[in-house]
Each structure stands twice: as C-alpha cells, then as structure tokens.
Amino acid sequence: MRPIYYVDEAGLARLLEAVEADEVFAAVRRDRGIEYCNLRARPDETLALREPRPAASPKAFLQPVRERVAVYSAAGVDADRSCPACSRRVLVGLRACDLKAVEYLDKVFREGDFKDPFYEARRESDVLISVDCVAVHENCFCTAVGGSPFAEAGFDLNVTPLDDGYLVEVGSDQGQALLDRAGDALREASEAEQRERQERRAASVQQLHEQTGGWRVSDRIQEALLSKDDAQGWGEQTTACVECAACTFICPTCHCFYLYDQAGGEAEFERIRTWDSCILGDYHRMAGPVGAKPSPRPGLRTRLANRLLHKYAYSPEQYGMLGCTGCGRCIEACYGGIDIRQVLKEIDR
Amino acid sequence: MTQAVEANPYAPQVARLSRVIEETPTIKTFCFDLEEPLQFRAGQFVQLGVPGLGEGPFTPSSSPLEPAHLEVTVLRTGEVTDRLHRMEAGDACTLRGPYGKGFPIEKLEGKDVLVVGGGVGLAPLRALIYKLLSMTDRLGRVAIKNGARETAELLFRRQYEAWASRDSVSLEITIDKPEPSWDGHVGVVTTLLDKLPQEIDIAGCYAFTCGPEIMLKFVTQKLLEQGLTPEQIYLSMNRRMSCGVGKCGRCNIGPYYLCKDGPDICYAKIKDYPNVFP
Q1: Is the pLDDT of residue B2 over 50?
Q2: How far is CA A348 from the centre of its chain?
Q3: How far is B268 from chain A (nearest CA, A)?
Q4: Contact indicator for B108, B206 with CB cutoff of 8 Å
Q5: Beta bridge partners of residue A72, listed in sequence order
Q6: d(C-alpha A139, C-alpha A340), whole Å
Q7: Under DSSP, is residue A89 helix (H, G, I), strand (E, B) or coil?
Q8: Which residues of chain B neighbour A258 with C-beta distances below 8 Å?
C-alpha cells in the first residue's frame, strides 16, 4: 500500500502551484456556489474542498459541450487538424461519484471496437485529484446506488480534508510524481490523522444513510422498470417535465452526442460533436416527409422511460454498472421539480 | 489515409461519385469506384453524406464481393437525401464505415432463406441477395418477396429476372394497389407470406426483412403466425444514428445499439424491450 501523507493548507496550495501543467481546474468558492476554475488564470481563488460537490460535474472537461472532431474539404480529410490536441491539465476536487462516472465514461469511450480518440487523449493526459466528501449535499444519494462519499480507486491523488490540513493518498505513479515535486510540503500522516480520516469518512456515510433513510436501489429495479407499462404510470413526470434536458446535461454519466457538419474556412468543412439529449423530441427523429417525421419515441413519456431504463436497466447489461452515481445533480437542475429518488422509490417498491 | 485519421471514427473520407442511377421517381443509387476498396459484410452500413451538410446511415446495396465498387441506394426523404439526389457523377460525398455486424451469413449453411423487402428496404437486402446468389450451392431454397406502393416504385426491377432464374431461388413481387398495366400480385407484402409453409422449411429457415418499421411489425407478426421463432427473424433497422459506433446513444432498442449490434438485429434479442415497433 502506498503511504498517506499530511499536508497543511499552504502546503496544498504549494503542491498545486508546483504541478507542471497548463491548466489546473479546481473546485473553488464563488458567490453563486462551488465551481471549477482554472487556478493558473486566477491564482487568488479559494479552494473549496470542504464543501459539498459542485453543482456541475467534471464531465465537460473530458467530453466538452462542443468540439471539432474533423476538418475536410472536397480533396479529403485534413489529418493534422482531425486529431486530438490536449493541454496538460490537472482536475482538482472530483468526488468519488465523479470518479465512478469517469469509470462509466471510460467504458463507453475507451472500450469496444471503436475508441474515441479525443476522450482517450484527455484521459491519458489529465491528472485527476479527487477529494472525500466531508460535507454532503442534501440531494446526494451515492450510498443508495452502491457508491460512497470517498474514493478508493480511479484517482492519481485523493485528498481528505481534516480539521486542520489534508491527508493525501497516492493512486498512481503520476500522482506520486506530482507529490515528489512538492516534497518538503509533505510528511507521512500520523496514526491520529489517519484515524481522523476514518472518522470523517464514517461520518459522511452516516449522514448519507440518514438522508436516504437507508433506502437503496435494489437488484429488482431492472425488472420493475421493464415491467412498467410504457403507456401508463409516467403521467406525473410527464406533466412536470418541461423537456429542457437539464437532467441529461448536468448528469455526470449522460454522454449522448450529435455530429453535425458546417462550413469551416474557404471550401472547407468541419465536423462538430455537440452534447445531445434523449429527452429532446428531435433526438430520435428520423428523416421523413414533413408532418410525418417518424420517431421510435414520439411521446415524452417514452423518452423519460428510456432515460431511466438506460440508467438503471440497460447500463448494467452494457457496461456492468449503473448509469447513475447518486450525485443528485439532476434533482436541483430540474425545473419541473422531479426528484429521481422519489421516482425510483415508487417504481422499486 | 494516415493512421491518426483511421483511428478517428468520426472523420469521413471523401469519395467522388462515379455514377448516379435513377431507380424510381424517389430512389437513386449512388455509385463509387473506390481506390481503397471498402470491405463490408452484407448488412453492414456506411455513413454517407453531403460535405458541409451532414450524413446518414445507409446499408450498401451493392455486392460485398465487389468492395471496390460501392453502391448506396437512397430514398429522397429529408434534407441530406434531397441534396444527395441533386448530386451528379464527379461530385464529392463524405463516406465512413463500414459499421455494425451485418447479416449472420455463417448461420445460413444448408438453410432455407426468406428475404422480405418493402420499398427502399430492398436496397440493403440486395447486398444480401448478391451474397446468397454467390453461395446457392451451400443453401437450401431462397425465397425473395418484395413489395412497393406502385409499379413505378419497384426497385431493381431490371434484376428480378436474373435473380429468379436460379432453380433454388424464387421471387414474388406485389404492389399495394391495382394498376391497369399490372397483372401481378396486388396487396401488402405480408400477403405474399400466406403460403410460406409450402415454399420453405419453416422450422429450419432464417428470415431477413427490411422496410418501413410498420411493415417490419406486420411481417414479424405474420412470420410468427407462420411458425417461425423470434430467433429465426432478423430485422434490418437503420434508425437515426449519428456516430455509427455505439457511443452517441440515439439508436438503442433496450441495451442494444442498432449501429453496433445491428443494424440487422435478431428479433429474439429485442422483442421484450419497449419501442421496438411504432
């Protein structure tokens, strides 16, 4: 097992300054809440690692909202401009649920017959520094979907905020190399500090249990969802949903995208990849005569059902894991006030 | 192409049309003579597009045995296909693929094969028919059933005679409504399946069908009524796809992505999931 280190507040800042990177995106406190901010551009921002998870997941770093994936002309594809170009980047403040989502996205984009070279390049080069949740958001329910508020794998470094200072656990050689550059800021953690880490982790788990009332998404959820009649039972949600797709855009595992072509330079075209959402009516729509555009899921209720089915019934078959990390972000994002915990509880009775 | 671009599944190659064949008032076949042959299995699809406008998933209608000469048969029905239909020999198209699994040819050894097409649905099935015709000595009987709205919309009519000239191959054509000049069968394509048990070995055959989804629904129902099991029925379903490689999400039926696990998918796999048919 790799050693666990102690670093004080100033030491952590020094560690992040010493990192060899073009961008260091860290969770910081802003007036409107916790957000990721590039410390290289704004070195005076205050790290917010003791707060609940940020409202946005780090998904957009790995899979940007909009990205050019190819440039071509009538003569053919421009190879040099149709491949990934990454900056050296460190992401600081990812939660255990975020790492779970990265694990999920890895399965989508890095496995199978075709790999996504853009995602792949970012995953190869990005350094991930996660942080234990010592404060839990009221919408968090990671323990109900098999998660926990602290990470045990998937990070380069993991940070546990203590009352005074932080403990840092190394998860990879890349993480170790990072620590080596800030060597004098660190010392091995004492037993008492490691005990405090255990206590803080246990306290967060306890709070989550209280918050969820011990509720867990059961193994029956797949069957329950599939047996739910498509034409019935989605009425309440259908009335509340305003089809804004915020739930899918805020979700750390939702990864649907759309490719479209546009004019680039003179006699040149670009292929752009942009986020898309299964909630939107045009998402599945096929070509057809005006007025008769066929869609396999024309009704909102079938699209809402498909989203839940994908998260809790199809993903286990496709990727061996749920498509939900219990981060609860979709709950605060929903304009219609749909609470996915309530929806699941009603289905999974 | 360089290795970097080959590793980018979203980057198209640019291919120039060598010929455009007007098949029917609404359907054209786009032909390419490719420098680098596009090796595909019957049923696999390509993303064919108009530079700067976009692309769509189409299963080639040409023979997988002639990969340097690619043909894609397209119904004019939307923005991209409308622009495609206005293109001529020499014009540049975007092209990538092949994607998907293709028809399970390996299962057909010694079996009877039923092919049911409707409208432009005969296009992907023609790639299968070419393949089947190349291996008739290893197959049982091959029954081809094809339907169209009207005679003017019958696809690949020039080839029917050649297909049906083989001893082990039968071909039946129908149109939806009577026409003065037509003395053939009239009725939807499912009406050609009434005498199926006299034509092929129901228990040991495989059926492949492609057409409008509503037709797939009724063909599937009919085949089940005739005693085929869901395992024997393959549906060719090119729903809306964007990436073509199982990542963008939109073409799912249950946990399967039609682009990756299809587009020719066994009915047994999907039948218990929602939104299979309209």
Answers
A1: no
A2: 25
A3: 16
A4: yes
A5: A77, A269
A6: 10
A7: strand
A8: 242, 248, 250
- Number of Cα atoms under 13 Å in the Cβ half of residue B176: 9
d(CA B121, CA B146): 9
Amino acid at A88: R
Among B253, B202, B199, B204, smallest CA distance to B224 is for B202
B199 conformational bin, left if phi > 0, alpha if psi -120 to 50, beta if neither: alpha
- Domain residue ranges in chain A: 4-64+76-212, 221-347
Q: In terms of Cα–Cα distance, which of A294, A292, A316, A296 is closest to A306?
A: A296
Q: What is the CA radius of gyration of chain B?
A: 18
Please check whether residue B104 touches A, CB under 8 A.
no
Chain-chain contact of A288 with B240 (C-beta, under 8 angstroms): no
Place of tokens 């045995």: B65
Tell me what percent of chain B is helix, strand and coil, each rounded to the nearest 5: 30, 30, 40
Element (H, E) at A263: strand A257-263
- Domains (ranges, CATH) in chain B? 3-98 (2.40.30.10), 105-270 (3.40.50.80)
SS (H, E, C) A113-148: CCCCHHHHHHHHHCEEEEECCCCCCCCCCHHHHCCC
ipTM for this model = 0.94
Asked if A257's CB is within 8 angstroms of B247's CB, the reply is yes
Which residues make Cβ contacts (< 8 Å) with residue A146, sequence separation at least 6? A216, A217, A322
Query: What's the average pLDDT block by block, 10 residues per block, for chain A (349 residues)?
Result: 90 93 96 94 93 95 97 94 92 98 98 95 96 97 97 97 97 94 90 97 97 91 81 73 96 98 91 97 83 80 93 96 98 95 87
Q: B252 at the A interface (CB within 8 A)? A: yes
CB atoms within 10 A of CB A336: 16
Q: What is the pTM of this model?
A: 0.96
Residue corresponding to tokens 């037993």: A191
- Which of B5, B252, B274 has the CB atom closest to A79's CB atom? B5
